[in-house]
Design goal:
This protein is α/β, with parallel strands linked by helices. The protein has a domain of 224 residues: Glycoside hydrolase/deacetylase (TIM Barrel). Strands 5, 6, 7, 8, 9, 10, 11, 12 and 13 form a nine-stranded parallel sheet that branches. A two-stranded antiparallel ribbon has the order 1-2. Helix 2 runs parallel beside helix 8. The longest helix is centred in the first third of the chain and has 30 residues.
Length: 374
Amino acid sequence: MATSKKGGTRKTPPAKKKVRANAGSGKKGPGKSRGGKKPDISGEFKKIFLGIAILAAICLTTAMVADIFFRPGTDRFKSGKEPEKQTPVKTITRESPQKPEPEKDGPLKVKVENKTKLAGLKEKPDGAIVYEVFKGVDETHVSKDRPRPQDHIPSISLIIDDIGYDRRLAMALFDLEPNITFSVLPGSPFGRSLAGRLKGKGAEIMLHLPMEPREYPRINPGPGALLASMSPDVLLDQLRKDLAEVPGAAGVNNHMGSRLTAQADQMNQIFTILKKENLFFVDSRTSKDSQCRASARLLRLPYAQRDVFLDNNQDVTYITGQFRKLIKLAEKHGAAIGIGHPYKATLQALEKELPRLKGKIRIVPASQMTVIPG
């Protein structure tokens, strides 16, 4: 109680009630948002789920589009047209001439450097092809194992390799000289049918047996090749398959084979099968280290070897010169074997030269040139 100046007393006014400690402090009550509303948690989850669904849909669509446009072998585009097929680039090495395309109905024409050629006919390329078969080998070697003609008329045999890719050219060569021997490649598109057709007309047929060259695998001898790495069982099984590809073959000569023919063990194994099948063998002589003659002597197999390659340069003038070398060898030694290929230039050279031989040189099948080496 306070005392006034006049000595009197006055009443002290009552104290105001204390305000609640939290009143107006700005803090939110539990479970309430600013403004007094609860947060929408279910809405947030819906947004997250929708975002994930959209992302998954985009990924799936992208994968489908990529599968349509980039999947290997796909053949449909939105335009509805066939996809363009890329033609593989064909590489011609100096040791491996390009095989002709399989012949179709009618003469197909292809354009090469502004010159029209018949498809399937091997023409002279820009640079002379040097075959694997010539590397390090004398091209005019004369075999010592050669029968001598009793009437003193020299004999030659003409073997045409690589038969099975051009039917017209093979038959043209037969029509020119029926005593030509035709050596057929296994696995060639027309090999089996040509072998039957030519044999039916009386021609002698051989298997042109692919063998591993020294340049393998850079140089590939083709389907049915016998390789030095093969086990004896695999090697002989492949040989039997190749023989079955050329029904009626009377003998065999090697296609390439500079590595395999130099392997005595493998050649002994091969000649065991040839002996059993009563076949002869002509060594194309693709290696100076060839063991073919020794294997033939061991197994008592009828054998001969090539003297001249006619057409390693596919030029009519060159082939004519090689053919005349063959004739001179036959005149000197009594007999000689020449090997050529189904090239148009070879046919043209033989058309010019063969008529000149009548009465001077006898043309005989290759089997008549074989003997068992002594």
